[in-house]
Design a protein that fits this description.
alpha/beta, Rossmann fold, 2 domains, 36% strand, elongated
Length: 201
């Protein structure tokens, strides 16, 4: 199945740089249902253990056990991935609890390694990962590029104030922090490994 999958987590979303359109698949992850209700959007499916929401909602619901190995967001991504979606946009899942934000960044990297794309939005920034490939994106503020999950080699940064060519980034040294756009579009590529890219909205 092609198309975009939007997943909404428990955090209130003040800024939605991309809004679901007709044909997009929308998932409410637990308390993310409240965000969608305030926006007047009906999700295609509601997934969660509903410990945050406080009750089991009606509709197309997949109720998860409270004791489990994955987060509600993780289950939501797996559900959509198994149905053929590869383009994910996740809101309300970054900027709250630090451990959950890190978990969602790991999910982002996992989707990238499996050939998909997941953008994780906070109210001021967006994060995504690139594995053994490249991505071109637009913006005008800060950009940070990190090795994620090990060494990243053959890293090239174009269209940024501090460029790199065929460099190596290590996961224990943040060489790529606080860069910035030098042109309307930037291209980040890596020959081997996974990069985490975070830039201002």
């Amino acid at each position: 199945m092609s198309g975009r999958c939007f997943i909404f987590g428990a955090l209130p979303t003040e800024k939605k740089p991309i809004s679901p359109k007709k044909g997009d698949f929308v998932i409410a992850a637990d308390k993310g249902l409240l965000t969608l209700e305030r926006a007047g959007v009906t999700p295609d499916v509601i997934i969660g253990d509903f410990d945050s929401l406080g009750f089991t909602p009606e509709g197309n619901v997949i109720k998860l056990p409270v004791i489990k190995d994955k987060t509600d967001i993780g289950y939501a991504v797996d559900y959509a991935f198994d149905r053929g979606f590869r383009d994910f946009h996740v809101f309300g899942a970054a900027g709250g609890l630090l451990d959950h934000t890190v978990a969602n960044l790991q999910i982002c990297a996992d989707v990238s390694k499996k050939g998909g794309s997941l953008r994780l939005y906070s109210d001021s920034q967006v994060a995504f990962c690139v594995t053994d490939g490249s991505a071109t994106f637009t913006g005008s503020g800060r950009v940070s590029v990190f090795a994620f999950g090990g060494k990243a080699s053959g890293v090239t940064l174009e269209g940024l104030f501090y460029p790199l060519k065929d460099a190596t980034l290590e996961s224990f040294f943040p060489l790529g922090v606080s860069n910035s756009f030098a042109s309307p579009a930037a291209t980040v590529s890596v020959k081997s490994g996974t990069l985490l890219i975070i830039y201002d909205l």
